[in-house]
Design a protein that fits this description.
Length: about 300
């Protein structure tokens, strides 16, 4: 019986064809069919295309690798430039910091020398700073802020009492009828050219109330005693402290106005905010300018300062 012809589904792989050709007991060479040959050709074509695909993929990967290498080289160059720029900035920062430390050392030395020449001891200065930063001078955040604007006048030296010597504006705003103690934050607004054009005063009621009826020199005994002693030793700065502080023998439960000034940073190149500095305490019921208070204190403590007539 003749041997049946293989169908496409029964076609063998190239390796199977070779194995069959070597097995003379299974099939003779002359019996390889056309389909077998075509199957072999298809395998050759398939593997050729696969080889070509391998080469194409290899070329693409090589191109991508070269592109990545170029990007990496560019990135490395950029990072090196950035690192060098940062190192340069760090060097400049180290130099500025070194200069700043030296400036700080010089400033601290000058401050201490100036304070010594002003006859202000470390203890007195510390006591005065604690008073200026005391919690009772913090305004009540729940109270309404009253605002008053004036046209700046250089001769008034930024002191609110010079703008309102009889506290007429304060009376008009109702400060007298509200009782308690008040804080006055004042700030001068300047134009871009540096010319002052508005003097603003903000009045804020303090949470602090006096219930013990103690005198101020009883509440802050060391501060007043040290300031009086320094003033008697000829310290103008100590005299100015006494002028700024509430009257030592005052024990009023209300009516004090503590004035604070906004001070801009000394170095505009530094990113720092300004600060509020205590300037003076005024009696709303007995307004008195700084010059009058100075003369009164000189006479009260028999200080060796000239009284201006």
């Amino acid at each position: 019986m003749p041997k049946s012809i293989s169908t496409d589904s029964e076609l063998s792989s190239p390796q199977e064809l070779l194995n069959d050709s070597d097995s003379t007991d299974k099939r003779r060479v002359s019996e390889i069919t056309l389909l077998d040959v075509q199957q072999g050709k298809r395998w050759v074509d398939t593997l050729t295309r696969e080889e070509e695909a391998f080469e194409l993929n290899r070329e693409r990967l090589v191109e991508r690798r070269e592109a990545i290498n170029e990007e990496l080289t560019a990135l490395q160059s950029r990072l090196v430039r950035e690192r060098n720029a940062i190192e340069s900035k760090l060097d400049a920062l180290r130099k500025r910091r070194k200069d700043a430390k030296e400036n700080l050392r010089v400033a601290e030395k000058a401050f201490k020398t100036g304070r010594t020449e002003a006859k202000i001891s470390d203890e007195l200065w510390s006591l005065y700073e604690k008073f200026c930063a005391a919690a009772f001078l913090k305004p009540d955040p729940n109270e309404e802020v009253l605002v008053l604007d004036n046209i700046p006048r250089e001769e008034f030296k930024d002191m609110f009492i010079n703008y309102d010597p009889e506290f007429a504006d304060a009376r008009r705003m109702g400060l007298f009828g509200m009782g308690g103690h008040w804080r006055c934050d004042r700030i001068t607004t300047h134009s871009p050219s540096g010319r002052p054009f508005k003097y603003t005063s903000e009045f804020k009621k303090l949470k602090y109330t006096t219930r013990s009826l103690k005198r101020w020199d009883e509440r802050f005994p060391k501060l007043y005693a040290s300031a009086i002693e320094a003033a008697k030793n000829g310290s103008t700065a100590a005299l100015e402290m006494l002028v700024a502080l509430p009257d030592a023998d005052d024990s009023g439960a209300s009516g004090k106005l503590f004035e604070f000034a906004y001070v801009e940073p000394l170095d505009p190149n530094l990113k720092q905010e300004g600060r509020w500095e205590f300037r003076a305490c005024h009696d709303l019921y007995r307004p008195m300018k700084s010059e009058e208070r100075r003369e009164s204190i000189i006479q009260r403590y028999d200080l060796s300062f000239m009284v201006t007539e």
